[in-house]
Amino acid sequence: MKSAIYYTCLLIGFFVTIACSQIHEEKNASHPNIVVIYLDDLGYGDLGAYGATAIETPNMDKLALAGLKFTNGYASSSTCTPSRYALLTGVYPWRNKEAKILPGTAPLLIDTQQQTLPNVLKRAGYHTGVVGKWHLGLGSGYVDWNKHISPGPNEIGFDYSFIMAATQDRVPTVYIENGTVVGTDAHDPIEVDYNQNFAGEPTGLDNPELLRMRWHHGHNNSIVNGIPRIGFMKGGEKAKWIDENMADTFLVKAQNYIKENKKQPFFLYYALHQPHVPRTPHPRFAGLSGMGPRGDVIVEADWCIGQLMETLADEGLLENTLIISSSDNGPVVNDGYYDEAVELLGDHKPSGTLRGGKYSLYEAGTRVPFIVQWKGKITPGISDALVCQMDLLASLASLVGIDVENSDSQNMIEVLLGNSKKGRTNVVLEASSRTALRQGDWVMIPPYSGPQTNKQVNIELGNSKEYQLYNLTDDISQQQNLAKIQPDKLHEMIEAYRAIRGQ
Ligand code: NG6
Ligand code: CA
């Protein structure tokens, strides 16, 4: 008969083997907390740290001053859903034809079996949470908003989620915590439809007398809190958010998440809703910027970030937290409501010296503020290396010592930490299914039909019947098309572009 000692040894051996394989997988691992602060439609020129003088953003500037400010940091797309898809999956959004601006009723865009940033970090022992804007779809077809909603963030790797389904201007205008709408009422069920209104319900189109914010284009379906939205919604009165409280609501959830999960490494994806429309600053911030609600909500977002940083400091976590701040796409001034953003803009240039903005294939569509901070680990400074948000998956996986499947995400961890200046060689940029190539300091935009300018938002889209070629070193504002003057360079860029896009 085998002795108890024999079995004890066997058991110890078993655990040692497991521990070793864990160590094997997490080679050279470091496990700081990771916080991704993601703004919505914040432009390259919207922060003091990136040259803005007409608006004050002291907290984001502090992040930049204490960290590494990237001047060539890109979102993967000039709109939200595709950028967020790439951020979380490490896959170019143009590989998935569904990765475009989604309605509030769209099914989950990410496959639950897909490799994602949160599920990779979970493999390294992280607790993972998302607070804020989701806009990656929910459910797998029809969603009953009164029941548990799945799949969603919790099925693609987030242990905790407190989100809005799509955007602040899209229904349903409710918060969803771990798959359940907050404040449901069996006597007042929530119904959502993007095709037709519910009988007898007022709309922005038919009932202008009920509006406190007028629509400029789109945004004339259901009215919630006096603001006309995209899509129709009925019921759920108790569940509806109060727009002016949204910033505080998300901030408190993010702060609580940090406090509750600080005992283990955590990954927090804090996706703010500012300065996307409708811009509804809390009364504390209304009028502060002198630039109308767009400026005010940037000031509000900056304050929220300051508060989050204070929480990290108060909890003694700053030295052990890697913080990455960026924006999902470039700026837009009028995105569908009359909110005085155009009239009160003054000298402020949300795109800075870049051409275009949200929806555009020009630089301001995708080149965004991109700041990485890790107190005591990253030497403050400026990096001109080419990096893309899509690279966070491979980079952070490498930091925490996890091997990942090949994807479009490149391991840029040494660049993000400031130890190397060797960024990507190139990146394909996307704008509403159109794509362009940045390689080195050159940008090539293939010919596209369609209007040069989206007149409603007053943004140049990048469409032209001709090839466009720009050298960003001499011409950051993309004013001089060199396609005809530098045919060899154009040819080289087209070849490189085709090699990636497979066309
Ligand atoms: C557009 C909306 C715009 C905004 C955008 C999504 C209209 C006319 N315009 O369709 O207001 O909601 O979608 O923005 O409806 S994003 O930042 O989430 O991509
Ligand atoms: Ca956006």
From TrEMBL:
Species this protein is from: Parapedobacter pyrenivorans
Gene Ontology molecular function terms on file: hydrolase activity
Pfam family, one: Sulfatase
CDD domains cross-referenced by the UniProt entry: ARS_like
Highest taxon above the source species: Bacteria
Every Sulfatase N-terminal domain range: 32-402
Keywords: Hydrolase
Protein name in UniProt: Arylsulfatase
Family under the similarity heading: Belongs to the sulfatase family.
InterPro entries: Alkaline_phosphatase_core_sf, GAG_Ulvan_Degrading_Sulfatases, Sulfatase_CS, Sulfatase_N
